[in-house]
Inverse folding.
């Protein structure tokens, strides 16, 4: 498509929001070569720009940081709250939306009968879905539907190309305009920036397709296992520090099948209330009893553990055969880490087995990208099962389960996801393998290590900046997932539109993916961003924050990546001055403070 | 009473008077207060006892509303002291997370094969060349150079992973094209593509069928369907495998029950497979469609094994039986078999597809399919469209060849349909114990492997399956096989089954 090509080359200069000095810095000075063909030079320039849209060159070599827990074996995370004014107005907003929704339904059903036919019995068939269940989608979500599922093109790297679309029927359907716009991407889970169409990973993928083919057309147990599958299994095991691992072609599929192989009637799964849907799906399939504890609340976990061990199974009081506690390393909606040090203490005392879902944390946190255990310096041998996905940090797809040799062998023959489901494509494996090799290279000149440290810098820098500007930010200071709280439902689409105007694509999350009150924006930062990108986002957030009245933080979470107020909060002391720095101040102090703290 | 002697009491009295007057005035303002006043007055004058009882009732009502809600009494809960709990915690010993492998599981583990590539003629890890008769690459498209070139172009355009769920910037133009292409290929309104074919139907069923809904399921359904109906928590009835009379009996039974008790209308589905994953036989779709229309049920058809293998041009069972694809509400298929890509799809009406985009668990909570795999699938569909059925004819003739070569032999029988490229071979001597049969079949697999043919047993997790089936060999015919190879394999199987059986019978004796 000509339009697409034109917008690609044109938009890099126009719409792409990089301050001028940054691009100037990143381009190495070209020596004029008179004999070089001009066309070739132009092509090279375009290519260079294309590569830069996937992975930004670092502006300053010092913009790196080691991601590790500095709180001395403790976890410090604090969730700020806004004033009651915003809580009340949020509830009122929902009330108004619901009332309007019902009024529209009332009149719609009488005057536009055809539009509501799908909610009624017709010709002896019950409606495909429930009238009441569908209310939220029909009346609330459709209002802001243009903020979700925006179709994209190309690499979901530092930039992402959105296909522009419009709706003529109130967001029920969308039509593509045919052109695209290049936006800064803080929405994809591309933590280490391995989503690239050029470079060693893409080379390896191409080679793998030529050599092994693209699809295995088979389950792992019949003929879907190639040499490269075993290589990647070994690499994954080595990377997380476990004796063995096995891989699955889908992350969701990993969690949704692994529990049936491990647990069964008579055993118990204790799950964090905010665990990913795939874990809930899988534990329900397993037939084991399920208990839930409050999110990251170790007191509640201990209460549940004491209760289930002392009371045994419901009715019979027979003791549970085994208990598996399931947590996530990094919770993708909250941006916070599991309190692993406390859980390990509890594990010693209560003898449960521990399953950590490292879907988001693997590669993204820890000094070597080893995930939550690496971050806290806890040996992975103490954890029974580590699960993770390759979708996020590795720019691929699929999931793995790493554990002892016995458990992995057992899973190979009893895990339905391994026995029945399609095995992983060799192309995906090549991507994983080459990114693993980069990350696992611990030499000082390692590119993988640079990516990990750039991500750690980016996460802290942006979190520090947003906090100082006065936003309510959830999660851990080292987490690349940055939820910015919006509260009022009307601000969800406002924020999304304002950001899109400024050329940034973001993910907004509302009920039911998060609690009713805490609608949020979720930024996912990447090693592919450089400081210029982050500053651009800070400036954009600053402007929009003023416009939409989003600077609501009370100061309790601190303005210095969360240390000064720890004591105050613990002792429940006094008043914390809410931080409201100006954007220039934030940017001028940002780097120094990020590196220092 | 003198006002001067008790000034304090006077004050209180005055205040009381003031309040009562004020409240009285306030009451006057309220609409309908007159009725209340008249009621209280009349009841007090005529019957003070009644007023008293009413007052008590009011107090009780206030108490009832304001009291702390009690949780339902759990009679089974045993109160324990902290010390006792500590002792119980110290005493509790969990079982190991997994039990050690038993004999059958060891056999399964040792039988895992590692290959070099997806090609029909490929190599084992030890370098021996082998012809693959167990891959679902029925049309040989996995090694199609044109498709591979297209996927490489996609890699060069958009990298590998989509790095996000479809609802969060994960749906790329490649996915949209694939969805459109499948829909127009089958002839339905819309399609949704999932990232793994195994998860597709497990996710589609609970997206529509909830508690109280009715599912009528083939008893030999595949594992993914079993898990899907388990999650849905609906009312489940099983009918005998591919037995239309039994299906009709159950439908009639439910219809009678429905009319007798005048039950409210709920969603009702019939779930069956086109070609059975467990047995390889084909359902009579035209009959199922007639029944579903008669009894007003919706049909969920799992075409994982029939899409791309059945029908004149590979459109699946609807084409084979000349049934309109719009008569089947949901067609679920796999892109990992004939189409040589990855993932699965669900095709049907726009309404149904759009609902899944918000409630299909494996769709919303999983990362999108890598764009390269989507590309491979739509390029494969383009090839099928251009080809116009000659590939499918080739496949059918090769299946027929294998069937013909294996008829009239005393060792194996098959449940597979003539059209099905997945052929299950069971031992005819059904009296041999289960484990022994598995061992015999495994020996045959090993023997064929030595001869350069890779076949496989039907792999199942027996402990979790609903039905225990007779162990079988699974042979997958592809257009990539030559007639000589097929004949050679069938004669190998015939010639050696005898000696294998004898060996085992002798070893038992």
């Amino acid at each position: 498509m000509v339009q697409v090509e034109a917008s690609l080359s044109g938009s890099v200069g126009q719409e792409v929001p990089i301050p001028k000095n940054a691009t100037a810095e990143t381009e190495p000075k070209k020596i004029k070569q008179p004999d070089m063909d001009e066309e070739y030079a132009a092509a090279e320039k375009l290519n260079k720009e294309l590569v830069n849209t996937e992975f930004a060159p670092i502006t300053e070599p010092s913009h790196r940081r080691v991601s590790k827990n500095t709180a001395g074996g403790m976890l410090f995370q604090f969730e700020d709250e806004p004033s009651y004014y915003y809580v009340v107005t949020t509830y009122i907003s929902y009330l108004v939306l619901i009332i309007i929704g019902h009024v529209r339904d009332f009149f719609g059903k009488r005057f536009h009968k055809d539009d509501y036919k799908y909610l009624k019995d017709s010709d002896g068939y019950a409606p495909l879905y429930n009238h009441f269940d569908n209310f939220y989608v029909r009346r609330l979500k459709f209002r802001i539907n243009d903020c979700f599922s925006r179709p994209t093109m190309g690499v979901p790297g530092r930039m992402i190309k959105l296909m522009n679309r419009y709706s003529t029927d109130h967001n029920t359907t969308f039509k593509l305009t045919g052109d695209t716009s290049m936006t800064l991407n803080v929405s994809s889970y591309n933590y280490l920036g391995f989503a690239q169409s050029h470079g060693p990973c893409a080379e390896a993928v191409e080679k793998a397709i030529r050599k092994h083919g693209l699809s295995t057309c088979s389950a792992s147990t019949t003929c879907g296992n190639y040499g490269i599958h075993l290589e990647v299994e070994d690499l994954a095991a080595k990377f997380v520090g476990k004796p063995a691992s096995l891989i699955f072609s889908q992350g969701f599929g990993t969690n949704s099948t692994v529990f049936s192989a491990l647990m069964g009637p008579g055993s118990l799964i204790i799950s964090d209330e905010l665990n990913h849907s795939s874990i809930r799906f899988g534990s329900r399939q397993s037939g084991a009893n399920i208990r839930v504890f409050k999110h990251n609340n170790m007191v509640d976990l201990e209460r549940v553990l004491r209760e289930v061990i002392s009371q045994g199974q419901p009715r019979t009081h027979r003791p549970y055969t085994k208990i598996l506690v399931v947590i996530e390393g990094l919770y993708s909606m909250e941006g916070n880490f599991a309190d692993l040090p406390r859980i390990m203490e509890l594990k010693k005392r209560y003898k449960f087995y521990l399953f950590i879902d490292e879907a988001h944390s693997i590669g993204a946190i820890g000094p070597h990208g080893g995930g939550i255990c690496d971050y806290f310096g806890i040996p992975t041998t103490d954890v029974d099962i580590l699960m993770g996905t390759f979708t996020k940090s590795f720019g691929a797809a699929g999931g793995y389960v790493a554990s002892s040799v016995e458990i992995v062998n057992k899973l190979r023959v009893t895990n339905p996801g391994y026995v029945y489901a399609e095995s992983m494509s060799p192309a995906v494996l090549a991507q994983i393998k080459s990114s693993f090799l980069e990350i696992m290279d611990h030499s000082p000149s390692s590119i993988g290590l640079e990516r990990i440290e750039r991500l750690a810098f980016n996460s802290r820098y942006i979190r520090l900046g947003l906090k100082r500007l006065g936003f309510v930010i959830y999660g851990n200071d080292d987490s690349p997932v940055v939820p910015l709280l919006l509260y009022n439902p009307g601000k969800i689409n406002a924020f999304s539109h304002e950001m899109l105007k400024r050329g940034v694509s973001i993910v907004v999350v509302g009920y039911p993916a998060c609690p009713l009150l805490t609608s949020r924006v979720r930024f996912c930062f990447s090693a592919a961003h450089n400081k210029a990108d982050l500053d651009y986002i800070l400036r954009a957030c600053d402007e929009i924050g003023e416009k939409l009245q989003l600077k609501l933080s009370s100061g309790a979470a601190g303005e210095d990546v969360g240390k000064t107020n720890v004591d105050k909060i613990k002792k429940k002391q006094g008043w914390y001055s809410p931080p409201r720095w100006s954007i220039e101040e934030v940017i001028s102090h940002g780097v120094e403070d990020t590196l220092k703290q | 009473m003198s006002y001067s002697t008790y000034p304090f009491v006077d004050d209180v009295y005055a205040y009381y008077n003031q309040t009562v007057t004020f409240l009285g005035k306030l009451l006057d303002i309220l609409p309908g207060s007159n009725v209340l006043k008249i009621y209280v007055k009349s009841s007090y004058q005529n019957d003070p006892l009644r007023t008293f009882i009413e007052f008590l009732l009011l107090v009780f009502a206030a108490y009832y509303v304001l009291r702390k809600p009690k949780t339902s009494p759990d009679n089974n809960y045993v109160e324990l002291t902290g010390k006792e709990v500590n002792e119980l915690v110290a005493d509790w010993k969990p079982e190991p997370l997994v039990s050690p492998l038993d004999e059958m599981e060891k056999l399964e583990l040792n039988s895992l094969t590692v290959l070099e590539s997806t090609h029909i003629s490929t190599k084992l890890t030890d370098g021996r060349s082998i012809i693959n008769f167990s891959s679902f690459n029925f049309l040989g498209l996995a090694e199609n150079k044109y498709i591979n070139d297209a996927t490489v172009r996609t890699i060069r355009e958009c990298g590998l992973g989509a790095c996000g769920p479809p609802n969060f910037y994960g749906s790329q133009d490649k996915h949209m094209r694939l969805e459109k292409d499948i829909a127009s290929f089958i002839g339905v309104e819309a399609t949704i593509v999932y990232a793994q074919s195994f998860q597709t139907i497990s996710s589609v069923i609970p997206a529509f069928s909830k508690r109280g809904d009715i599912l009528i399921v083939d008893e030999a359904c595949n594992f993914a369907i079993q898990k899907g109906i388990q999650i849905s928590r609906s009312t489940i009835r099983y009918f005998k495998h591919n037995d239309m009379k039994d299906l009709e009996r159950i439908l009639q039974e439910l219809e009678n029950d429905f009319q007798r008790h005048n039950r409210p209308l709920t969603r009702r589905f019939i779930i069956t497979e086109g070609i059975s994953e467990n047995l390889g036989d084909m359902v009579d779709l035209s009959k199922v469609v007639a029944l579903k229309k008669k009894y007003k049920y919706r049909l969920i058809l799992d075409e994982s094994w029939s899409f791309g293998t059945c029908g004149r041009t590979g459109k699946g069972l609807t084409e084979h039986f000349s049934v309109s694809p719009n008569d089947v509400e949901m067609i679920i298929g796999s892109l990992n078999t004939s189409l040589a890509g990855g993932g699965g799809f669900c095709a049907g009406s726009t309404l149904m597809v759009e609902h899944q985009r918000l409630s299909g668990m494996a769709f919303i909570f999983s990362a999108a399919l890598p764009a390269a795999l989507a590309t491979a699938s739509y390029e494969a569909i383009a090839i099928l469209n251009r080809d116009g059925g000659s590939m499918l004819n080739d496949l059918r003739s090769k299946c027929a060849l294998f069937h013909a070569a294996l008829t009239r032999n005393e060792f194996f029988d098959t449940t597979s349909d003539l059209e099905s490229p997945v052929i299950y071979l069971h031992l005819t001597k059904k009296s041999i114990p289960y484990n022994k049969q598995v061992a015999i079949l495994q020996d045959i697999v090993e023997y064929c492997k030595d001869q350069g043919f890779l076949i496989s047993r039907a792999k199942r997790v027996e402990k979790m399956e609903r039905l225990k089936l007779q162990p079988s060999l699974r042979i997958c015919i592809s257009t990539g096989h030559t007639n000589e190879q097929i004949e050679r394999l069938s004669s190998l199987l015939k010639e050696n089954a005898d000696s294998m059986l004898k060996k085992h019978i002798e070893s038992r004796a």
Remarks:
- The mean pLDDT of chain B is 89.
